[in-house]
User: What shape does this take?
Amino acid sequence: MTIIRVGLDTSKHVFQVHGVDENEQPVLRRQIRRGAVEKFFAKLPSTRIGIEACGASHHWARLLRGLGHEVLLMPPQYIKAYVKRSKNDKIDAEAICEAMSRPTMRFVPVKTAEQQAALTMLGVRDLLVKQRTMLINAIRGHAAEFGVTAAKGPKQITELLARLASDEDVPGLAREMIGVLASQLNGLDIKLKALEARLMTWHRQDQTSQCLATIPGIGPIGGVSFALKVPDAKAFRSGRRFAAWVGITPREDSTAGRQKLGRISRAGDEDLRRLLVIGATAVIRAAKPGRTAPWLMGLLARKPKKVAAVALANKMARIVWAMMVSGETYRRPAQA
Assistant: This one.
């Protein structure tokens, strides 16, 4: 008996294994505990193992590759089509095993431990920014209850706190409680500055990130994000496929030769898509005749700014792919 392919359904504690032989017949169906996974596959002859790309999947891929197996990660939405009827661990493992055999299946590159460690910087920064926004909103809300307000923007919060501290009409207990939030906000600002300094250090040491940062609207954070989250841009055959992977292309619902395009699909990495749209919005805000591409000025004359921002984000995604594949720096198009 030769096992040619194994589907591995992972979870927190219990893993399901489904293997087939050269005749595509199931010959291995087994449930194993998390602690026994490494020992089990160490005894198994080298084979191809498919895993759903989800939490901890890159860790297991690296571990199983170290045992001599060929490991392939697949997006969950591509596996769903092979799930038969109801859903359980056995059916999921069988679907993974079946999906990885398809010649047109697309696979997710396995990240190294160093790449994942660098990605934690982006995740932690996003979390700290969200917490800072929550604290600022809470401070503004409590201050407004006593008639103390300030202009929009995080930079205005210092003025708001100073006014609260000097306003004798605000009860002392309220000022004390808001002060607790202010101390947390100061601590977050210190951590964010330190983390962004480390991100900038990483950016200066990475050629791809520096190259992408030259694109208008991308910047260092965008350059670092794309460099870390897209380790192999050549896995995409074209810029449009890359933009579709980011989820910045229209959703299609065509039939009978009639093409029907809707809103953007919003598939793929939400953070990359958000960075592209934010960057495109910044470019549009600074757009001026003679300094901005004529096609964008024409689009702004016909369409709302938000629609134009999404169109520009699509174009930026294709530029990112082209630069990552070619290794060239950004060249500003000549104005007509």
Remarks:
- The mean pLDDT is 92.
- Strands lie at 3-9, 14-21, 26-33, 48-52, 70-74, 250-252, 261-264.
